[in-house]
Each structure stands twice: as structure tokens, then as C-alpha cells.
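Hello Y.,

Per our agreement to keep a running log of every chain we model this quarter, I'm adding this entry. I've kept the format consistent with earlier entries: sequence first, then predicted structure.
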Amino acid sequence: PNYSFSISNSVNFKNITFYMLVNSIQGGNHSYVGDNSATRNANAPFTSFTDRFNIQDIPYWTPTRSSNEYPRINYNPTLPHFILEDRSFVRIQDISLSYTFNKGLVGTNNNLRLYASAKNLHTFTKWTGYDPENRTSLTGFPLMKSYTIGLDLKF
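Predicted structure for the entry above:
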């Protein structure tokens, strides 16, 4: 890739804390590409994900729709080849929001904090596979999103 960056910020206002982390990898001039044959061609060699894609609703090439984005649905080349796509992305990696109650609310010196957090909320990318950080769509899995709500009580 040409460059990668992460930026985080934590904002506190009275008893509320907001935290956010954004992660990105950006390529250029075809320097950060990956094989995405499985999402572009249902007949790609070793493709085992055809049950996970709606291959009937993909705008495949037809004589009346001459697009070079997807090969025809029964495309089976004599020599297998890659279908390369740019894997650049910007991802909202972590977000958390917490509220710390005033000391002594539960006891004399106790701290009580209520929080909610989310990981991997959204990835902005033109990559049509599961995860642009994974090199290929043939062995990749979707990036897991997680949501957490919690209560932190310190004695």
C-alpha cells in the first residue's frame, strides 16, 4: 500500500466519555490489489462461496448488457486467472460511549460506570469481497462485528 493510518480520539464532557478509532490502508497505481475471483465469477476454481452470494442478481455480461465488470454466469476459462480489485479501505474500528456516575452513588467511595461499545462498525471500500484486509476472497471470512453493553463497578 501507499500508506496506512489510524487515528483515535477521546472526548470527555462532564461524566460522559466518547472514544473512536478509525483505521485505513490506501493503495495506489494497483499496488494494493487482491484476487476477488470468488465474488466476480461463480465458476472460479476452488470457489466454495457460491452459496453465500446472490449469483442470480449480479449484472453478468450478456450480449445486450456488455459490461466488463463481471464475466458471464457460465464463464469457465481454459487457463484460470485472477480478477484483481483495489483493497483500499477506511474502517470505523472501535467506538465506545460511557457514563461515569458520581462517586458515592452506590457507596461511600465506589465508582459506577455504564458503557456501550462497538467494534468493526463499517468499512468504506470498493472491494466486493468480505474483508479488504484479507488477501483473497477465496479464503476470507467476513469481519466480525461486536457490540457490548456493560456496567463497571469498582469498590
